[in-house]
Amino acid sequence: MKTVVLALLLGLPAIAAATPPPGSHGQRAPAPEPMKRFVWRDEAAGYTFVAPPRWAGKVRAVPLESAELAQSGATSGVRFMAESKTLLVLLATDEGRMHALTAAGGSELSRHGGHVVAVKMADDGGELALTNEELASAVQWDGGGSGTVAR
Q: What is the pTM of this model?
């Protein structure tokens, strides 16, 4: 009886070592979960744009080319698109260049620490269009500070 117990105790670690961990040795990796939220970060201006969950998996961010930035007077910018349709364009600059953004058709969305974010809305965004409340809360500045808006 003692030999059987001893054999079992010595054999358990060998059995456990023989089972490979999940994901190794040709086992398939788990299926990726779809994106649950839409977030885009602008490192230069120091803010994060957080859209509502209905944008997840449907909208993509396309950074603006330098020619578009120069034309608008922005230092950074992004176009949010669903398929081939532009939903909105975010433009960021410092407070000294804000006049150029508004002259190019942007309206001020948020201002914080010397940086300004302006937005150009599409005429019809359909079900993906943002409400004024969603748009106002979408810009989150670094450090947790809230921005101010002058409309």
A: 0.69
